[in-house]
Amino acid sequence: xxxxxxAVKGVxxxxxxxxxxxxxxxxxxxxxxxxNGEGKTTLMEATPALLYGSFPSRPGHLTAHAHGxxxxxxxxxxxxxxxxxxxxxxxxxxxxxxxxxxxxxFELDGAGKWTTLTSGRAAEYKLEIQxxxxxxxxxxxxxxxAQDKAGNFLGLxxxxxMELFAELLHLGxxxxxxxLAKGHLDKELERLALVVxxxxxxxxxxxxxxxxxxxxxxxxxxxxxxxxxxxxxxAKLEEDLVALDRAKxxxxxxxxxxxxxxxxxxxxxxxxxxxxxxxxxxxxxxARKAKLPDKIENVTGAANRELERFTREKDELxxxxxxxxPQTVGLAQVEEELATQILEKNRLLEVRRAYDIQEAExxxxxxxxxxxxxxxxxxxxxxxxxxxxxGQRIEDLAGTCPLLEEAQKANKLLGTAATIDxxxxxxxxxxxxxxxxxxxxxxxxxxxxxxxxxxxxKLQAEGVTKRLEAFLQETEEEARTINEELAAAILxxxxxxxxxxxxxxxxxxxxxxxxxxxxxxGAQPVGKLESSIIVAREEIRTAKARLARGELAxxxxxxxxxxxxxRDLQVSQDERTGAQREVKAWKLIEEALGRDGIQALEIDAAxxxxxxxxxxxxxxxxxxxxxxxxxxxxxxxxxxxSEAFDVKVYDxxxxxxxxxxxxxxxxxISEAVGLAIAIFNARKSGIQWRTLWRDETAGALWPETAxxxxxxxxxxxxxxxxxxxxxxSHQPEVWEAxxxxxxxxxxxxxxx
Length: 752
Hints:
Helix content: 55-70%
Shape: flat
Strand content: 5-15%
Low-confidence stretches: none
Structural class: alpha+beta
Number of strands: 17
Largest sheet: 6 strands, antiparallel
Mean pLDDT: 80
Radius of gyration: 68 Å
Strand order of the largest sheet: 2-1-4-5-6-7
């Protein structure tokens, strides 16, 4: 599997589309360089984030590191398994605002078109990625390494080395299986302990079974004797109870007859009182009925007298004199015309005032204009004056006189002014009409008062008539009610008489029946029967108490419980056998999955090959100077071996302590081990990756060791069969030795 092209948008620092076309660069080392925080790690981790949904070095969901609704990561790959070559494209659409992902996987068909392999569902996409690209754990353990994963391998303690080696070999799943096996083992041990305790309790309970069986036999004999006694005493008790019941029934009958007689006497007395009450009610109702005619006559006479008074008042009002206004004229019509005539009168008054003003002004203008006939200068100019700059000249000075000027204007106005006619005749006619209409209005209002009095008289007469009719109707209803109540009272009186006679007959009957029952009780003494019953019941109670206290039922229950426990014991013994088998099996599995089991075997098996690959990489850096070996087992003084994980470093064939190696040499050797494990895992897996990622795994290098690190990467590319190695470095000595530099800055990637 080879990464051909990578495109990113809207993720961390990359706001715009960023495309890294690796297919155009060819095989070799590609150094990803740039300042801290510019996105180098994002570019390196974009591929695992695209495939597996998260950044290896950044916690949280993929959407937490994106922004905007149209972010995405896309990459194209070439898959060559030796028989067939396929082009694949993975694309994850990221909506950071809604925290939603849509992953898609495509395959290039024979016609050069991308065919969709998934529909955007995460579960479907995950299965296809697992099948075609392998698991995330395998990817991270084989071809991808980050700066915080391996650390300084030689500087770690033995236990930490072994744990790190197991992580790099992807043995975590075995450790998880061991934890699961240990959980099953603990559960089975707990179950086994419970079963063993239960078996002990059951065996102790079953020890008393023979004694219980003897006690059960004796208890059965006592139960048989008590049962026979109870049967005999219950038969005699039944006879006495029947006799006692008859005697008590007779006593109750006597009480019933006594009560019936007393009730009959009381009822007869109450019946006589009912007769008296009903008779009194009949008398009162007949008296009320007799008073009704007089009441009707009084009310009717008063109403007729009041109606006669209203008739006289109406006749008097109707004979009063009416107004002289024409009958065709109504009050509304008069008031409407009166308002119109008043408006006309006011208008003519205004015209009359304007006429008077006009006449006064005309008289004044005439007097002013008459001055023209009295002043001689108007007709012949007589004065001359000297005009400055012109000498003496003759002018008409009459025009400069204010009085004469006013006279001329008044004369001119008399000839042109409009004339207003005198409206005195029309005004007199309107005033006469207003006076006439006012008189008509007063007469019409007086007529309306008389009509209202007549109408009120009529209403009062109608009210008296209605009240009289209502009184007569109420009186008729009262009479009907009195008749009904009278009939009911007579009926109640007759019934009370009949009920009283019936109660007296019942009293006589109850007295006779009581005497008959008293004679029957004399032959069956109640006290003797009750004494016999008490004795029988005590004997039965004693026998039944012995039966209740007897051990038979309890012993039978205990015996049944012991039989149940015997069956439980057999089931528990079978369960113990099964639990012992489960404990043995899970213990074997837990030990096999532990550090001394499969994990140790995996590490032991990988040690020589990883050491050989490490030495091959070290030769690319230092020639034959440095080499290593893994010591996974150490001989005990007492015999046998113990687990160990020592790394022996050789310098020129001589073993050296790891502490004596310089920092740069430790970095190189630790990275050589990490690369060797990556190559080892890549060879073991079924997914052959052709791209290798290293994110600052070498740390800070001395300038003299930088070239050695680059040489190691080139050798790792050859040994692992990788086309390209993408690595992040901050040392110019390292990135300048790469075949291509991808500089990350300002959200862009530039190749050089």
